[in-house]
């Protein structure tokens, strides 16, 4: 076999592998679709699958896609809707827009079902519901916005992630050092802050998440419970030690959200949907 024949054979092998992978993905997607239909029959209501791989964020592009999908395929909701969600989060603005969109379909009753993860902006989405259904291992997450910054070093550029809470903690530390008489250290730390205006915008980002969460909780899940809603929104945006904090079903109840454990006759089916979707990812 000459060199060109070897290249041809290799390319053919690659194409056959791609076809096998594509067929396998389509097969698993059909399995997920069939199981969601079974879940709809079991719960006697439509269910929208919002199941993302870890690298797919909730963003403005997604809003448009879901809008047309709901218009095309979910006209028979009759005001009741389940949203099966798996997401690590994304943009708070897009999450709020989606929340209001799902409310149009679930105008009478809207539930969010969380098999495993509804973190960050996905938690904002879940707060749009009348009730959140969770498995024993499901997690919601804090709403402190994560900010990406490129840090320029001598021989490289590295992305870093930080929370607006880090800004507030840094300012508290500088204030503490100054009040304790360590003026030189406080001044040195202040000089390291590159852009006070930029830092203010990061802090403002947390206020945006808090405002969206407050608006959503005040108008459905915890209607007319303004003090309770205010406490929950503040805790979600400022009260947890880090962004990955596990807000499981017990923590969510203690927080004051309306949550229930997924019924025993449904939990295995929902887990199968999540696991099959994970294999596709």
Give the CA-CA distance, first to last residue: 38 Å
What integer is the average pLDDT?
Answer: 85
- Helix count, DSSP H or I runs of 4 or more residues: 10
Q: Please describe the biggest sheet, giving its number of strands, its sense, and whether it closes into a barrel.
A: 5 strands, parallel
Record field, number of beta strands = 9
Which class best fits the helix and strand makeup?
Answer: alpha/beta
Q: Spatial order of the strands in the main sheet? A: 1-2-3-5-9
Helix percent reads: 55-70%
What is the CA-atom radius of gyration, in angstroms?
Answer: 23 Å
Low-confidence parts: none
| SSE arrangement, N to C | HEHEHEEHEEEEHHHHHEH
Q: Strand content of the residues, in percent?
A: 5-15%
Q: Which term fits the overall shape? A: flat
What is the subunit arrangement here? single chain
What do these coordinates show?
The chain is of the alpha/beta class. About 60% of the residues lie in helices and about 15% in strands. It has ten helices and nine strands. It has a five-stranded parallel β-sheet with strand order 1-2-3-5-9, sandwiched between helices. A two-stranded parallel ribbon has the order 4-6. It has a two-stranded antiparallel sheet with strand order 7-8. Helix 2 links the parallel strand 1 and strand 2. Helix 3 runs parallel beside helix 7, helix 5 (about 165-180) runs antiparallel to helix 6 (about 185-190) and helix 7 (about 195-220) packs antiparallel against helix 8. The longest helix has about 40 residues, at about 5-45. It is flat and about 80 Å long. The model has no long low-confidence stretch (mean pLDDT about 85).
